[in-house]
Amino acid sequence: MYKLVLIRHGESEWNKANLFTGWMDADLSDKGIQEALHAGRLLKEEQFVFDVAYTSYLKRAIKTLDYVLEEMDLLWILVYKTWRLNERHYGALQGLSKTTTAEKYGEEQVKLWRRSYDVLPPALTKDDDRNPRYDVKYRDIDDALIPLTESLKETVVRVREYWDKEISPQIKAGKKVIIAAHGNSLRALIKFLDNLSSEEIIDVNVPTGTPLVYTLDDQLHPIAKYYLGSEQHIESKIQEVAKPDKIME
Ligand SMILES: O=C(O)[C@@H](CO)OP(=O)(O)O
């Protein structure tokens, strides 16, 4: 049996402003920092210890991991960063307000872009400044792998490749692992870990800055999972992410 902890970054400045974020490198808000510190304290209280951590190339996840590890006095452990754990690429929606986009295209369309499994948001054009190709972080990544938009389906493919090749062998070797990533890259991971259908994943929303603890069997199939913290607090945070009226605020 193994334990695995997943954590979505704390609230970002762009979550707060209700903007489509994707691969844009938004920083944590003050609330997001507090969420990350609180998550670290909870993990410490519950006597979790980690040997290896994984995160994305985006600062909201990297900093969340750092705050968590700092609270746990584990800043020294091995941390792997990968673009494969980045948020789902939101294409040309990145940087737009979810409110204004819903007013323009309708709430239904925005819901499809946000939560359907295989609907692609409009793609960036190659010459768009937001093309990751122009960002030094991605200079070593093959052109063919750099997305200009993604549905959750594509995100699942890249997260799964990394899981199979890098993360699952470490867990099977007995390393205690924490993954700090994003709402949709974690939904991708949860989809294949829990073997959810493309319909079932629609209703899964991951709250910010809240550790999700999995117990896995020898084949890494989940036996149990729970969020750390008070049930009421977690439920209100999940509703906050899912809330369609957040779009219309
Ligand atoms: O904007 C984004 O990148 C994501 C996560 O914050 O938003 P959503 O919940 O709409 O997929």
From TrEMBL:
Quote the catalytic activity from the record.
(2R)-2-phosphoglycerate = (2R)-3-phosphoglycerate
Per its UniProt record, what Gene3D superfamilies does this chain match? Phosphoglycerate mutase-like
Q: Which residues bind substrate?
A: 8-15, 21-22, 60, 87-90, 98, 114-115, 183-184
Enzyme Commission number, as recorded: 5.4.2.11
Annotated GO molecular function terms are: phosphoglycerate mutase activity
Indicate the annotated site residue(s) for Transition state stabilizer: H182
Alphabetical list of Pfam families matching this protein: His_Phos_1
InterPro entries, from UniProt? His_Pase_superF_clade-1, His_PPase_superfam, PG/BPGM_mutase_AS, Phosphogly_mut1
Task: List the active-site residues.
Answer: H9, E87
Q: In which pathway does it act?
A: Carbohydrate degradation; glycolysis; pyruvate from D-glyceraldehyde 3-phosphate: step 3/5
For this protein, the record's SMART domains field holds: PGAM (SM00855)
Q: Which UniProt keywords apply?
A: Gluconeogenesis, Glycolysis, Isomerase
| Top-rank EC class of the record's enzyme | isomerase
User: What CDD domains does this protein map onto?
Assistant: HP_PGM_like (cd07067)
Function summary: Catalyzes the interconversion of 2-phosphoglycerate and 3-phosphoglycerate.
Q: Which HAMAP family has this protein been placed in?
A: PGAM_GpmA
What PANTHER family does this protein map onto?
Answer: PHOSPHOGLYCERATE MUTASE (PTHR11931)
Q: Which NCBIfam families match?
A: pgm_1, PRK14115.1
- Give the UniProt family note: Belongs to the phosphoglycerate mutase family. BPG-dependent PGAM subfamily.
Question: What name does this protein carry?
Answer: 2,3-bisphosphoglycerate-dependent phosphoglycerate mutase
Upper taxonomic classification of the species? Bacteria, Bacillati, Bacillota, Bacilli, Bacillales
